[in-house]
Amino acid sequence: MRTASMRVPGQELRTRIEYDHKHMAAGVRFYDYQDASTLLEDFWTEVDKILQQKE
C-alpha cells in the first residue's frame, strides 16, 4: 500500500491510498503493494500456480 498526496489549486490537500489488486474469477482481491520487484516476483509465482493447475 502506498499513499499519494496532491494539492489542487483552490482546494484542500487530498491524500489517497493506492492498492494494486488481483482478479480472482468473479471477484477482486486487493494486493498490498510494497515495491515493483516484489510485485513482479509475486505475479510470476501466481502465474506458475495457475499454469500448474491447468496441466
Give a summary of the structure in a few sentences.
The chain has 55 residues and is an alpha+beta fold. It contains one helix and four strands.
Q: Radius of gyration in whole Å, from Cα?
A: 16 Å
Q: Poorly predicted ranges (pLDDT <50, ≥5 residues)?
A: none
Category by helix and strand content:
alpha+beta
Helix-strand sequence: EEEEH
Characterize the largest beta sheet: strand count, sense, and whether it forms a barrel.
Answer: 2 strands, antiparallel
- Number of distinct beta strands: 4
Write the layout of secondary structure elements.
Layout: E1 2-7, E2 13-18, E3 20-24, E4 27-31, H1 36-54
Antiparallel strand pairs: 1-2, 3-4
Detailed description of the structure:
- With 55 residues, this protein is an alpha+beta fold.
- The protein has one domain (2-54).
- It has 1 helix and 4 strands; from the N terminus they run E-E-E-E-H.
- Strand 3 and strand 4 (27-31) form a beta hairpin.
- The radius of gyration is 16 Å and the shape is elongated.
Fill in the keyword field for this structure:
55 residues, alpha+beta, two-stranded antiparallel ribbon, 35% helix
